[in-house]
Amino acid sequence: MSSAPTDRPVFETSVTVRSPELDSFGHVNHAVFLHYLEHGRFEALERAGFGWSTLKSEGRSIFVVRIVVEYLAEATHGDELLVRTWADSFRRTSMVLAQEIVRVDDPAVIVTQSEVTAVWVGPDRRPTRVPNALREGLMHLETSPPDRV
Amino acid sequence: MSSAPTDRPVFETSVTVRSPELDSFGHVNHAVFLHYLEHGRFEALERAGFGWSTLKSEGRSIFVVRIVVEYLAEATHGDELLVRTWADSFRRTSMVLAQEIVRVDDPAVIVTQSEVTAVWVGPDRRPTRVPNALREGLMHLETSPPDRV
Amino acid sequence: MSSAPTDRPVFETSVTVRSPELDSFGHVNHAVFLHYLEHGRFEALERAGFGWSTLKSEGRSIFVVRIVVEYLAEATHGDELLVRTWADSFRRTSMVLAQEIVRVDDPAVIVTQSEVTAVWVGPDRRPTRVPNALREGLMHLETSPPDRV
Amino acid sequence: MSSAPTDRPVFETSVTVRSPELDSFGHVNHAVFLHYLEHGRFEALERAGFGWSTLKSEGRSIFVVRIVVEYLAEATHGDELLVRTWADSFRRTSMVLAQEIVRVDDPAVIVTQSEVTAVWVGPDRRPTRVPNALREGLMHLETSPPDRV
Questions:
Q1: CA-CA distance, D149 to D135, in Å (whole number)?
Q2: Cα separation of C80 and C76, whole Å?
Q3: C35 FRET partner, CA 20 to 30 A, in A143, B78, B92, C58?
Q4: Coil/strand/helix, residue B52
């Protein structure tokens, strides 16, 4: 999968591993990373101009329709992780977001790489257009973006 | 992704959606399906001859290294689902398992399709050979398999 | 805490422990039991005549305001558990449900005992009356209840 | 339940609500708070001198045997919470920790209050003595504690 681009914003969210997120193999269960990734995506959307409260007040939902995750390193208790999120591509009602999780104390260690395809859904639970403002916010670098890498 | 094969065992595990597994969009959160799928895989391994207690007593682990999931239909409170698991391919220390989740009341409705690549790991947390007995159990139809579709 | 009564319905729901519900101590994490218990409560409500879909269509919610859980035995991979739920007491807008979880293969082993206080909430997110029909369904034995112990 | 004491350390851990932690009622599910609380307890233990890695290397576990939680306010997407943890009392092999969760932006709002009883368990899974060093670290104020309120 592709690594973080330089021509569009890369949004960063930090995550601390919590003890009950470890499974019986003593590391973060693979399903838990999907929680970190979803959290990172909603943070990215918020900073790109389309916040959770707007989503809810407009009765919209975002449904994940496809996910590919590669797990490259383990994470365990006490680890501080950084979730990086950026837009990969758009269609009329869906978007592909790319993400990677790295260690805060050693960002060269990539823990996971992933691509998530999500569809925008209206109050009638049918696909609806990706908001233009969001597309802009995800694709264009501002002069002084607040949390650009 | 491929559909359930006829030349090797397909293991089935039923799952009932539990209320706290719904997210704020009113359906089963996409991360929760990874719980159902992991549960289905360990059930399949158990029936193929390599149970959880054997795994633990031998100090082995199975680490997920890649997952692809396509979400094709929603699931919600009260739904009864069937997780189908079968072997796709093997390498020396890893295996690819294919899975699909369907509705019990209408098995034609595919809820998710997925492929999971997992590595077998020894007590030293380094890759180790996939047990031969398991490979046999996953690949060969017995005369009267207990839970063949 | 009190044990299952004989003068009112005791609703039973079976639960299978799933592998990702184990934590790094190799047993079901204490937080996971709250999922089993919530699942058991909504099943009980459904059978007592107040189903999830009714709840949602009326825009009501049920908020847990207090929980006491005693953990008496461990549960681990492959365990089949039985969640027993019954009404303890009611106030105008709240109810106390008592629950215990036992092992299916040895119901004398009590895994958890608990009491949950929950408030009924209307579309305006303010407390609302406990439905009378539900109170009846939870308190009175029918001639041939479907899942009475 | 009692409020934070002044004669012993109160350990603070911040927690950010993540989107998949909301349930279908649109707020943090009551079971999720047990994750926040467990996370807060292990952070407290670590700072009191008994870290996770020590626990694991010595083959010890800490089993929750009783939990009482009062839910006083809702939490939802984007909320920043503070988990406060302090020792309430000790017996030979068990301890009672008290905890409260407040809002970071308005610490007067108590979200939950709780008491957790936990037993120390050795490699043989039988109760073992609470480490003296931990008891000291939890009970005595140092001259300049790093994260005292």
A1: 19
A2: 9
A3: C58
A4: helix
pLDDT at A148 over 80: no
Please report the ipTM that was assigned to this predicted complex: 0.93
**What is the tens place of the pLDDT at every residue in D132-142?**
999 999 999 77
- Give the residue from chain C lying closest to B53, CA to CA: C77
Q: Is the pLDDT score of D65 beyond 70?
A: yes
Interface chains of chain C (3 or more CB pairs under 8 Å): A, B, D
Tell me whether D19 touches chain B (CB under 8 Å). Answer: yes
Domain that includes residue C20, residue range: 11-139
Residue numbers of chain B with a pLDDT score lower than 50: 144, 148-149
Q: How far apart are CA B15 and CA B104, in angstroms?
A: 9
Chains that touch A (3 or more CB pairs under 8 A): B, C, D
- The rounded distance, in Å, linking the Cα atoms of C140 and C132 is 12
Per the confidence metrics, is the pTM higher than 0.90? yes
* Rounded average pLDDT over D114-123: 97
- The answer as to whether D38 is a domain residue is yes
Say if residue C149's pLDDT is above 50. Answer: no
Length, in residues, of chain D: 149
- State how far the Cα of C66 lies from the Cα of C75, in Å rounded to an integer: 24
- pLDDT of C147: 53
User: Cα separation of C39 and C43, whole Å?
Assistant: 6
Task: Answer yes or no: is A6 within a domain.
Answer: no
CB contacts of D24 in chain B (<8 Å) are: 19, 22-24, 26, 77
Within B57-93, strands assigned E span: 61-71, 80-90
pLDDT value of position B114: 98
Taking alpha carbons only, the member of B102, C15, B34 closest to residue D20 is B34
Chain C residues whose beta carbon lies within 8 Å of the beta carbon of residue A26: 24
CATH code for position A28: 3.10.129.10
